[in-house]
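agent: user wants the structure for WD repeat-containing protein 18 from Anopheles minimus. delegating to structure tool.
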Amino acid sequence: MTDCIEIALTSDTSAQHWSCCAWDVRTGTQLMTYRNGGPPGPNTLNIINNQVIVAGHLTKPLLTAWPINRQEPSKVKYMLPAIPGAVAVGPDGNFCIVAHGHSFNVYNLKTGDNMASVSQHYGKINVLRFTDDGSHFISAGQDCRIIVWNLSRTVQQKDNGRMLYELADFTLPVSDVVVGKGGMKATLAAISLDRSCKLYDLANGKLFLNIVFPVALSVLTMNALETELYVGDKMGSIYACNLQSVPRSKEIHLQQGLLTQNIFMRHEKAITCLSVSMDCETLLSGSEDGTVIVWHVKTRQKLKVLPHKASITNAFFLVMPRAMFNQSLELPVPFPPFHKVVITRQERERISIEMPASKRPLRERLELMGMPAAVYDNDNAGKIQELEQEIEKLKAINQQLYQQSIQDITNEKH
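agent: tool returned. relaying tokens verbatim.
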């Protein structure tokens, strides 16, 4: 692995000793535990801006939040309409989408307002995913459909064009969805219990590859370079597919014999979680057998086993936040309780969000985001100062553009 330290965040269905836990994947030791939040459900564990961890309860209509450097959760209770089936937080940390049954609600985390409630699926929603730019999101579930949404139109409750398009190529429920890098120009990969893995162009929903496996599929992930696709099945095996080898046809049927060389076999039950490290050399897998395994990708060898008490619900890599072990740092959870009723258009227009500007030096801000301190030295001090001056200039230009835009819009209305 690289010098940038990556850790694993995991959870299981027992919550006997903790709700979720941060692990050192190199040594297999526990770094931090987050308690008294109950067992998180599948696809409900998220980290916001490297400062707050949120998780949806497995059996109760609750959302729990922990400061990254505290074991006890926030005292604020986040009540939901029903038990969350999936939770997704935007990359900027402004919006949170919570699925319950065949519907989902969009919440503004800064104000707690319920911005929209949407019911377009005919079955339970299993997966919610944001694009990396936060402009769109994807929902998928038991009705065998995948729907792509525009976040701004959904929040504005515009009926026309709120749903961009839907994908209905599967014959059984969709198990998992992964979105690559590049916003709406990214690759969308999805798997189903019908044993197929389909890859789409997210911009137009065009299917460009269909891989059919010999077993039912449960979870998938891609590496950062999008050159390898990893698929977990219901029998406990993980398959690696090289996306750089150009297929001769749009549809490929893989037989068990062809997968022997590219298979990870150690789990005894269905795979529930998969994640790849940033350097693409380490794979993290969780299973219903109560274990999380750290693999070396090239050799397919097991590096570490992280034991748990029950079936794994969430397991993924993240860059270790610097604030995680700074107990003196106060990181209050800034999110108010969620509102039950969807706000009206008039209320939406009156919303004002205060975004405090960070006055910290660039060095401190990057360290808080998890960047290694070894990157900086005295020789770069002058360069950092120049960058900070350039940032201030850009802020002034953006402020001028904003004032001019407001003035032009006001003149048009009059």
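agent: one observation worth passing along. The chain has two domains: 6-319, 357-412.
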